[in-house]
Amino acid sequence: MGGETSDEELIAAYLAVQQYLAELVTAKRANPTDDVLSELTDGDLTDEELMRYLTVAKTFARVALEDIELGGHTVKAGTTVIVSMNTANRDAERFTDPHTLDLQRREGGHLGFGHGIHQCLGQQLARVEMRVALPALLGRFPALRLAVPADEVALHPEVADIYGVKSIPVAWDV
Fold first, then answer.
1. pTM over 0.85
2. Chain segment 66-115, per-residue pLDDT in tens
3. Looking at the chain, which terminus has fewer C-beta neighbours within 10 angstroms, N or C?
4. How far is CA 160 from the centre of its chain?
5. Please, where are the H alpha helices in 31-143?
6. Nearest to 147 by CA among 173, 174, 169
7. Helices (H), the chain
């Protein structure tokens, strides 16, 4: 990452780290110990199903660096391509029943955190929040509930580059 590293070396290093972490998570799930990673990998939630279903960053613009064949069409070098992450994450050829939130889904490979050298740097924080902070919040406030009907929860506008909840009004019994 010092500037002298080639793109090929960066991609190879990224893939090696990805493989190492995948193997480590698999090992921790099979034989959990008393550590943070075992705690994070415990439970019924599959890897990032919520991120697949509720993709935060919807679209990205990329420029083709060379001519490339894509879906039966040639994209010429220098052409700007708009990538729709939320559409890719709902691809029926990739995911069974893609428009259904399935917390037991075993199909991986979503693009909720991007991919390759464009992978989100904050993904680990998001994973920790989903696996640690949310259960801790619900453990502390077991009667926590929406204060409004679910269809009234305010979302960022569809035209925004980043999709997500604007605010969540909640209530709980004391």
1. no
2. 999 988 999 999 998 887 877 888 889 888 998 888 877 877 777 766 66
3. C
4. 18
5. 36-41, 49-53, 85-88, 123-128, 134-140
6. 169
7. 7-30, 36-41, 49-53, 85-88, 123-128, 134-140
Helix (H, G, I), strand (E, B) or coil at 75: strand
Residue environment code for 17-51, b if the CB has 16+ CB neighbours within 10 A, otherwise e: eeeeeeeeeeebeeeeeeeeeebbbeeebebbbbb
| C-alpha span between 1 and 156 (Å, rounded) | 34
Structure tokens at 166: 């604007």
* Residue whose entry in the numeric block shows the structure tokens 């506008």: 157
For residues 66 and 87, the answer to whether their CB atoms sit within 8 Å is no
Per-residue DSSP letter, 76: P
What are the structure tokens assigned to 48, written together?
Answer: 């990032």
Q: How many CB atoms lie within 10 A of CB 95?
A: 21
